[in-house]
Amino acid sequence: MSSSHIVSAYDEELKYLSRRISEMGGVAERMAADAVRALVNSDTVLAQKVISDDPILDEAERQIGEKAIVTIAKRQPMAADLREIIGSIRIAADLERVGDLGKNTAKRVLAVSDSTLPRTLTRGLEHLSELASAQLKEVLDVYASRSPEKANGIRERDEEIDAVYTALFRELLTYMMEDPRNITPCTHLLFCAKNIERIGDHATNIAETIFYMATGAQPVGERPKDDTTTSLNTMPT
Q: Which of 59, 92, 127, 160 pairs as cysteine with 64 (C-beta 3.0–4.6 A)?
Protein backbone atom coordinates (compact mmCIF):
# COMPACT_ATOMS: atom_id res chain seq x y z
CA MET A 1 0.00 0.00 0.00
CA SER A 2 1.13 3.61 -0.56
CA SER A 3 2.87 5.69 2.11
CA SER A 4 1.04 7.83 4.67
CA HIS A 5 -0.74 11.00 3.66
CA ILE A 6 -0.98 14.39 5.33
CA VAL A 7 -4.76 13.90 5.72
CA SER A 8 -5.10 10.93 8.06
CA ALA A 9 -8.71 10.35 6.96
CA TYR A 10 -7.35 9.56 3.50
CA ASP A 11 -5.20 6.79 4.94
CA GLU A 12 -8.21 5.42 6.81
CA GLU A 13 -10.22 5.29 3.59
CA LEU A 14 -7.48 3.28 1.86
CA LYS A 15 -7.13 0.99 4.88
CA TYR A 16 -10.90 0.43 4.84
CA LEU A 17 -10.72 -0.81 1.25
CA SER A 18 -7.81 -3.12 2.06
CA ARG A 19 -9.54 -4.49 5.15
CA ARG A 20 -12.81 -5.15 3.34
CA ILE A 21 -10.97 -6.96 0.52
CA SER A 22 -9.30 -9.21 3.10
CA GLU A 23 -12.66 -9.93 4.72
CA MET A 24 -14.22 -10.74 1.35
CA GLY A 25 -11.31 -13.06 0.61
CA GLY A 26 -11.91 -15.05 3.78
CA VAL A 27 -15.60 -15.53 3.00
CA ALA A 28 -14.91 -16.44 -0.65
CA GLU A 29 -12.27 -19.01 0.36
CA ARG A 30 -14.66 -20.66 2.82
CA MET A 31 -17.57 -20.75 0.38
CA ALA A 32 -15.48 -22.31 -2.39
CA ALA A 33 -14.08 -25.03 -0.12
CA ASP A 34 -17.39 -25.76 1.64
CA ALA A 35 -19.27 -26.09 -1.66
CA VAL A 36 -17.00 -28.92 -2.81
CA ARG A 37 -17.05 -30.54 0.63
CA ALA A 38 -20.86 -30.48 0.53
CA LEU A 39 -20.85 -31.99 -2.96
CA VAL A 40 -18.47 -34.82 -2.12
CA ASN A 41 -20.25 -35.67 1.14
CA SER A 42 -23.81 -35.03 -0.12
CA ASP A 43 -24.16 -32.54 2.74
CA THR A 44 -27.26 -30.53 1.92
CA VAL A 45 -27.09 -28.54 5.17
CA LEU A 46 -23.60 -27.28 4.36
CA ALA A 47 -24.71 -26.55 0.80
CA GLN A 48 -27.52 -24.36 2.10
CA LYS A 49 -25.03 -22.54 4.32
CA VAL A 50 -22.87 -21.74 1.29
CA ILE A 51 -25.89 -20.44 -0.61
CA SER A 52 -27.03 -18.28 2.32
CA ASP A 53 -23.56 -16.71 2.64
CA ASP A 54 -23.57 -15.31 -0.90
CA PRO A 55 -25.31 -12.02 0.00
CA ILE A 56 -22.39 -11.24 2.35
CA LEU A 57 -20.06 -10.94 -0.63
CA ASP A 58 -22.62 -9.06 -2.69
CA GLU A 59 -22.98 -6.44 0.04
CA ALA A 60 -19.23 -6.20 0.59
CA GLU A 61 -18.62 -5.57 -3.11
CA ARG A 62 -21.28 -2.85 -3.09
CA GLN A 63 -19.71 -1.17 -0.05
CA ILE A 64 -16.22 -1.26 -1.56
CA GLY A 65 -17.50 0.23 -4.82
CA GLU A 66 -19.29 3.03 -3.01
CA LYS A 67 -16.30 3.83 -0.78
CA ALA A 68 -13.99 3.82 -3.80
CA ILE A 69 -16.18 6.26 -5.73
CA VAL A 70 -16.45 8.63 -2.78
CA THR A 71 -12.70 8.48 -2.17
CA ILE A 72 -11.92 9.26 -5.81
CA ALA A 73 -14.36 12.19 -5.78
CA LYS A 74 -12.98 13.63 -2.52
CA ARG A 75 -9.25 12.99 -2.86
CA GLN A 76 -8.69 12.99 -6.63
CA PRO A 77 -5.95 10.36 -6.23
CA MET A 78 -3.12 9.89 -8.69
CA ALA A 79 -0.52 7.23 -9.51
CA ALA A 80 -0.18 4.52 -6.83
CA ASP A 81 -3.19 5.73 -4.83
CA LEU A 82 -5.46 5.63 -7.86
CA ARG A 83 -4.20 2.15 -8.75
CA GLU A 84 -4.89 1.04 -5.17
CA ILE A 85 -8.49 2.18 -5.38
CA ILE A 86 -9.17 0.86 -8.89
CA GLY A 87 -7.48 -2.41 -7.93
CA SER A 88 -9.79 -2.75 -4.94
CA ILE A 89 -12.84 -2.46 -7.20
CA ARG A 90 -11.47 -5.09 -9.58
CA ILE A 91 -10.48 -7.54 -6.84
CA ALA A 92 -13.85 -7.14 -5.09
CA ALA A 93 -15.59 -8.06 -8.35
CA ASP A 94 -13.44 -11.19 -8.72
CA LEU A 95 -14.09 -12.27 -5.13
CA GLU A 96 -17.82 -11.72 -5.53
CA ARG A 97 -17.70 -13.95 -8.59
CA VAL A 98 -15.80 -16.64 -6.64
CA GLY A 99 -18.67 -16.59 -4.17
CA ASP A 100 -21.18 -16.98 -7.01
CA LEU A 101 -19.27 -19.99 -8.34
CA GLY A 102 -19.25 -21.57 -4.89
CA LYS A 103 -22.99 -20.92 -4.57
CA ASN A 104 -23.66 -22.43 -8.00
CA THR A 105 -21.74 -25.56 -7.04
CA ALA A 106 -23.66 -25.81 -3.77
CA LYS A 107 -26.96 -25.61 -5.66
CA ARG A 108 -26.06 -28.78 -7.54
CA VAL A 109 -25.60 -30.80 -4.35
CA LEU A 110 -29.30 -31.64 -4.20
CA ALA A 111 -29.27 -32.72 -7.84
CA VAL A 112 -26.54 -35.34 -7.31
CA SER A 113 -27.16 -36.27 -3.67
CA ASP A 114 -29.12 -39.41 -4.63
CA SER A 115 -26.53 -40.57 -7.17
CA THR A 116 -23.70 -42.99 -6.44
CA LEU A 117 -20.63 -41.25 -7.79
CA PRO A 118 -17.44 -43.18 -8.51
CA ARG A 119 -14.77 -42.37 -5.94
CA THR A 120 -12.29 -41.53 -8.70
CA LEU A 121 -14.55 -38.68 -9.83
CA THR A 122 -14.96 -37.20 -6.37
CA ARG A 123 -11.21 -37.49 -5.81
CA GLY A 124 -10.68 -35.60 -9.04
CA LEU A 125 -13.03 -32.84 -7.94
CA GLU A 126 -11.34 -32.65 -4.54
CA HIS A 127 -7.91 -32.39 -6.15
CA LEU A 128 -9.09 -29.66 -8.51
CA SER A 129 -10.67 -27.83 -5.57
CA GLU A 130 -7.49 -28.10 -3.50
CA LEU A 131 -5.45 -26.53 -6.30
CA ALA A 132 -7.94 -23.69 -6.83
CA SER A 133 -8.29 -23.05 -3.08
CA ALA A 134 -4.51 -23.00 -2.62
CA GLN A 135 -4.16 -20.53 -5.47
CA LEU A 136 -6.88 -18.30 -4.03
CA LYS A 137 -5.33 -18.38 -0.55
CA GLU A 138 -1.88 -17.61 -1.93
CA VAL A 139 -3.05 -14.68 -4.00
CA LEU A 140 -4.83 -13.17 -0.99
CA ASP A 141 -1.56 -13.47 0.96
CA VAL A 142 0.20 -11.71 -1.91
CA TYR A 143 -2.43 -8.96 -1.78
CA ALA A 144 -1.21 -8.19 1.73
CA SER A 145 2.44 -8.01 0.63
CA ARG A 146 1.85 -6.45 -2.84
CA SER A 147 4.74 -8.49 -4.23
CA PRO A 148 4.72 -8.23 -8.04
CA GLU A 149 7.12 -11.19 -8.33
CA LYS A 150 4.85 -13.49 -6.35
CA ALA A 151 1.77 -12.21 -8.17
CA ASN A 152 3.36 -12.99 -11.53
CA GLY A 153 4.38 -16.43 -10.25
CA ILE A 154 0.76 -17.26 -9.44
CA ARG A 155 -0.32 -16.11 -12.89
CA GLU A 156 2.17 -18.42 -14.55
CA ARG A 157 0.91 -21.47 -12.59
CA ASP A 158 -2.68 -21.19 -13.81
CA GLU A 159 -2.13 -23.92 -16.41
CA GLU A 160 -1.80 -26.59 -13.68
CA ILE A 161 -5.46 -26.15 -12.74
CA ASP A 162 -6.42 -26.15 -16.42
CA ALA A 163 -4.62 -29.46 -16.97
CA VAL A 164 -6.37 -31.16 -14.04
CA TYR A 165 -9.72 -29.80 -15.22
CA THR A 166 -9.13 -31.15 -18.73
CA ALA A 167 -8.30 -34.63 -17.36
CA LEU A 168 -11.44 -34.62 -15.18
CA PHE A 169 -13.52 -33.42 -18.13
CA ARG A 170 -12.37 -36.38 -20.21
CA GLU A 171 -13.04 -38.82 -17.36
CA LEU A 172 -16.58 -37.53 -16.90
CA LEU A 173 -17.26 -37.87 -20.61
CA THR A 174 -16.05 -41.48 -20.47
CA TYR A 175 -18.52 -42.34 -17.68
CA MET A 176 -21.34 -40.69 -19.62
CA MET A 177 -20.58 -42.69 -22.75
CA GLU A 178 -20.27 -45.99 -20.87
CA ASP A 179 -23.69 -45.80 -19.23
CA PRO A 180 -26.54 -43.36 -20.15
CA ARG A 181 -27.65 -43.41 -16.51
CA ASN A 182 -24.49 -41.48 -15.69
CA ILE A 183 -25.33 -38.63 -18.03
CA THR A 184 -27.39 -36.53 -15.60
CA PRO A 185 -25.12 -36.72 -12.53
CA CYS A 186 -21.96 -36.38 -14.63
CA THR A 187 -23.39 -33.32 -16.39
CA HIS A 188 -23.87 -31.69 -12.99
CA LEU A 189 -20.31 -32.62 -12.07
CA LEU A 190 -19.04 -31.12 -15.33
CA PHE A 191 -20.62 -27.81 -14.36
CA CYS A 192 -19.14 -28.08 -10.87
CA ALA A 193 -15.69 -28.82 -12.26
CA LYS A 194 -15.95 -25.78 -14.54
CA ASN A 195 -16.99 -23.65 -11.57
CA ILE A 196 -13.89 -24.74 -9.68
CA GLU A 197 -11.64 -24.12 -12.69
CA ARG A 198 -13.11 -20.63 -13.01
CA ILE A 199 -12.25 -19.92 -9.36
CA GLY A 200 -8.63 -20.50 -10.35
CA ASP A 201 -9.09 -18.05 -13.22
CA HIS A 202 -10.39 -15.40 -10.84
CA ALA A 203 -7.43 -15.97 -8.53
CA THR A 204 -5.20 -15.36 -11.55
CA ASN A 205 -7.17 -12.19 -12.36
CA ILE A 206 -6.47 -10.97 -8.83
CA ALA A 207 -2.76 -11.75 -9.27
CA GLU A 208 -2.71 -9.62 -12.42
CA THR A 209 -4.46 -6.79 -10.61
CA ILE A 210 -1.95 -6.93 -7.75
CA PHE A 211 0.89 -6.79 -10.28
CA TYR A 212 -0.72 -3.69 -11.80
CA MET A 213 -1.27 -2.08 -8.39
CA ALA A 214 2.38 -2.60 -7.46
CA THR A 215 4.03 -1.67 -10.76
CA GLY A 216 1.59 0.40 -12.80
CA ALA A 217 2.01 -2.08 -15.68
CA GLN A 218 0.28 -5.20 -16.90
CA PRO A 219 2.11 -8.57 -16.81
CA VAL A 220 4.05 -9.28 -19.99
CA GLY A 221 2.92 -12.05 -22.32
CA GLU A 222 -0.19 -14.17 -22.67
CA ARG A 223 -1.54 -15.96 -19.62
CA PRO A 224 -0.50 -19.64 -19.73
CA LYS A 225 -3.48 -21.92 -20.43
CA ASP A 226 -3.82 -25.70 -20.60
CA ASP A 227 -7.60 -26.09 -20.93
CA THR A 228 -8.03 -28.12 -24.12
CA THR A 229 -11.65 -29.15 -23.57
CA THR A 230 -12.78 -27.18 -26.63
CA SER A 231 -10.71 -29.42 -28.88
CA LEU A 232 -12.19 -32.56 -30.41
CA ASN A 233 -8.90 -34.27 -29.55
CA THR A 234 -9.99 -34.33 -25.89
CA MET A 235 -12.87 -36.69 -26.66
CA PRO A 236 -12.30 -40.15 -25.15
CA THR A 237 -11.62 -42.98 -27.57
A: 92
Measure the N-to-C terminal CA separation of the chain; round to a whole number of Å. Answer: 52
Q: What is the CATH number of the domain that holds 203?
A: 1.20.58.220
On whether the CB atoms of residues 28 and 102 are closer than 8 A, the answer is yes
Whether 133 is in a domain gets the answer yes
Query: Cα separation of 54 and 62, whole Å?
Result: 13
Q: pLDDT tens-digit profile of 64-106?
A: 999 999 999 999 998 999 999 999 999 999 999 999 999 999 9
Inter-residue contact 186 to 175 (CB < 8 Å)? yes
Question: Whole-angstrom Cα distance, residue 230 to residue 211?
Answer: 30
Range of the domain at 76: 8-234
How many domains does the chain divide into? 1
The answer to whether residue 2 sits within a structural domain is: no
CB atoms within 10 A of CB 29: 19
Q: How far is CA 235 from CA 175, 196, 197, in A?
A: 12, 21, 19
Q: Is residue 66 a part of any domain in this protein?
A: yes
CB atoms within 10 A of CB 181: 11
- Contact between 172 and 184 under an 8 Å Cβ cutoff? The reply is no
Summarised one tens digit per residue, pLDDT across range 173-223 is 999 999 898 898 899 999 999 999 999 999 999 999 999 999 999 888 776
Q: Please tell me the distance from the alpha carbon of residue 150 to that of residue 152, in angstroms, as a whole number.
A: 5
Query: At 54, which amino acid appears?
Result: D
Q: What is the pTM of this model?
A: 0.89
